[in-house]
Amino acid sequence: MKSILVMNGPNLNMLGQREPGLYGHSTLADVEQLCRDTGELLGVVVECFQSNHEGELIEALHKAGRAVKEGKMIGVVFNAGAYTHTSIALYDAIKAAEVPVIELHISNVHARESFRHHSYLSPVAEGVIVGFGIEGYALAINGLVTKMGSK
C-alpha cells in the first residue's frame, strides 16, 4: 500500500494552545489522527512528521522524494508554517527531490499580515489548500491521492 507523508513545520506542535481563535482547539495529535483516518478511507498509509527545524524538514523531503521514485509513496502534504514565507531552502528541497507536495495552511494566510501573502513553496507545489481549518488536511490528502495516486 502506498503512503503519504504529512509534514508540519515550526510551532504546529503548539496547536490547541497557540492562538485558538485563529487555529482552533484541535491539537497536533488530533490533526494526525484525522490524517490517518482519511488515509485509511482512501486506501493509503499516512505517516506524520513535525519539526521546528528547517534542516529536519529538508531531510524528510529528500527521503520522501526517494520513496516516490521507488513507488512507495504518493507525495507530501506540507504545512510549513512560517517557513512558507521565508525558506528558499525548502523550495529547493522540494524541487531537487522531485516530490509532489500539496501546500497547506490552516488559516487563510491571505487574510492575515502582508508578509504571509507570499509563499516560496507555491511555485513548486502541485496544489495549495488555505483557510479550511484542520479539515484542510483531509482535503489535501484527498487531492494528493486524486491527482498523483494513479501516476
Automatic annotation (TrEMBL):
Name the positions where substrate binds.
79, 85, 92, 106-107, 116
Q: In which pathway does it act?
A: Metabolic intermediate biosynthesis; chorismate biosynthesis; chorismate from D-erythrose 4-phosphate and phosphoenolpyruvate: step 3/7
Q: Which top EC class applies here? A: lyase
SUPFAM superfamilies reported for this sequence:
Type II 3-dehydroquinate dehydratase
Q: What is this protein called?
A: 3-dehydroquinate dehydratase
**Which source organism?**
Grimontia marina
GO terms (molecular function) for this protein are: 3-dehydroquinate dehydratase activity
- Entry keyword annotation includes Lyase: yes
Site: Transition state stabilizer. Where? 18
Q: Summarize the subunit comment.
A: Homododecamer.
